[in-house]
Amino acid sequence: MRYLFAACMPFFLVVACSDGGSDDPAQPIGNMAPQAAFTSPTTADERSSFNASAGGSSDPDGMIVSYSWSIVNTDQIDITLQGEDTENLSISVGEIQNSADIQIMLSVTDDLGESASASSVVSINEVDAQLLPPMPNEQDSLATVAGIDTDGDGVRDDVERSILGLYPLNTPRREVLLIGASAIQMQVMAGNDGDQAESDAASERSADFAACALSSGSVETVRQDLAALKLFTLNTDARRQAYLDYEASRAGTIQRAVDPSLVDCTFEF
After folding, report:
1. Domains of the chain with CATH codes
2. Of 180, 171, 173, nearest to 231 (Cα)?
3. Residues 162, 166, 168, 169, CA torsion sign
4. Cβ atoms within 10 A of the Cβ of 156, count?
5. Residue stretches of the chain with pLDDT short of 70
6. CA dist 130 → 47, 95, 104 (Å)
7. Using only C-alpha atoms, what is the Rg of the chain?
8. Which terminus of the chain is more exposed, N or C, with fewer CB under 10 A?
9. Which of 92, 98, 68 is nearest to 78 (CA)?
10. What's the predicted TM-score (pTM) here?
11. Which residues, 6 or more positions from 78, have their beta carbon under 8 angstroms from its beta carbon?
12. Who contacts 184 (Cβ-Cβ below 8 Å, separation ≥6)?
């Protein structure tokens, strides 16, 4: 009886350790890779900011210990990133000349060194050209001294388009030139109509332009911009003559100087 008990003892102990099953206890398995996931908008406009969040990333058998964000930017869009090594990425987009795509890349690493990645494309929209009226038909645009100003902002449609082409990536400078273009348009119409009140208003607008232009650029830059504006706006004989008539009407008058700090140098479309 002692012999039989001794022979069964090892077998009894194995069965007890395996909790009655027939297999060996489960052995530890290798580290499982994390899962990278993030949310972000699919579209954004130029001069805007948006976020990408990796809150949906996870690790089935541990924890995520690091995040790494990057951007694939083949069109060289002006992009600024904040939080490249955190769970949430902030993306600021500058000015662009044409709509383009960027690709957001995320890499996450868990506490045992395994990593995973995810990516998503965001379309960046150029909006400035969309805000402007279309380029008018040339014949219609040249038919009258006033030209075509569809949106009624005081600047002809063709001139607005020309200014965008001159400074596609510089909104503040475009706004200054739009102020200058509206001043020249007022001068042309005052010369064409022979109206003193219009002439005085045009002179005031011209003073605003001079103040804004000199506060944001060199004298040489202002000269070049003014030459470009006259090229855009005084593009018919009738318009050039109206401008000369305005200048003749202002002979002997003194244009006031304006403190740039007192002038709103933004242009309302």
Report:
1. 43-126 (2.60.40.10), 129-262 (no CATH)
2. 180
3. negative
4. 26
5. 1-29, 268-269
6. 14, 14, 26
7. 35
8. N
9. 92
10. 0.77
11. 93, 94, 95, 96, 169
12. 206, 229, 230, 233, 234, 243
